[in-house]
Every structure is written in structure tokens, then in C-alpha cells.
């Protein structure tokens, strides 16, 4: 009899992988804060303060992180195909 993985096992694997990705991302953000990387406070990031609260939209930070992650994923996919 041939053994096949069920859908629940596949979902479990994806959840484990997602957890690992979140842990690594959290660790990198923690290290960035420790070393003083000004993520969220770069020129071009929008921050509006008023008496009852604050609105933050890190536009420049999002663009830079998108470019860095796109480059990393492009390198990984290039090496993965070889």
C-alpha cells in the first residue's frame, strides 16, 4: 500500500514553516533595534501626531525592505534552480 500525506500534514508543515519564518523575522527586527537601525523613522516615512494618538505609515521603510527581500528571493531562486 502506498503512503500518501494527508492534507492535515501539509497544513501542519506550512504552519511550522510559517512559525520559523516569523521567529527569524522577529529576531532580525530585534537585532535591528539593538544596533540602532532606524526602521520606521527614515526620511519619507509618514508620521502624523495629534493630541489623541499617532498615525505612522513607514513608506520608505516598506520600499527598502521590499527591494531587499526581492533581491534575496531572486538569489535563492537562482541558486535553487542549479
What do these coordinates show?
By secondary structure, the chain is an alpha+beta fold. The chain folds into two domains: 1-37; 38-82. 62% of the residues lie in helices and 12% in strands. It contains two helices and two strands, in the order H-E-E-H. A two-stranded antiparallel sheet has the order 1-2. Strand 1 and strand 2 (53-57) form a beta hairpin. The longest helix is centred in the first third of the chain and has 28 residues, at 7-34. The mean pLDDT is 86.
Which key features would you list for this structure?
82 residues, 2 domains, 2 helices, 62% helix
Concise structural overview:
With 82 residues, the chain is of the alpha+beta class.
The overall pLDDT, averaged over residues, is: 86
Shape: extended
Helix content: 55-70%
The SSE order reads: HEEH
* Total number of helices: 2
Integer count of domains: 2
Q: Report the count of strand segments.
A: 2
List the strand order in the largest sheet. Answer: 1-2
Beginning-to-end CA distance, first to last residue: 34 Å
Report the C-alpha radius of gyration, rounded: 19 Å
Q: Report the biggest beta sheet as strand number plus sense, adding barrel if it closes.
A: 2 strands, antiparallel
SS content category: alpha+beta
How much strand? 5-15%
Amino acid at each position: 500500500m502506498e503512503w500518501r500525506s494527508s492534507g492535515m500534514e501539509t497544513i501542519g508543515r506550512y504552519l511550522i514553516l510559517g512559525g520559523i519564518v516569523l521567529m527569524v523575522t522577529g529576531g532580525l527586527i530585534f537585532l535591528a533595534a539593538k544596533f540602532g537601525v532606524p526602521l520606521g523613522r527614515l526620511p519619507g516615512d509618514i508620521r502624523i501626531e495629534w493630541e489623541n494618538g499617532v498615525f505612522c505609515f513607514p513608506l520608505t521603510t516598506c520600499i527598502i525592505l521590499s527591494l531587499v527581500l526581492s533581491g534575496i528571493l531572486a538569489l535563492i531562486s537562482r541558486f535553487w534552480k542549479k
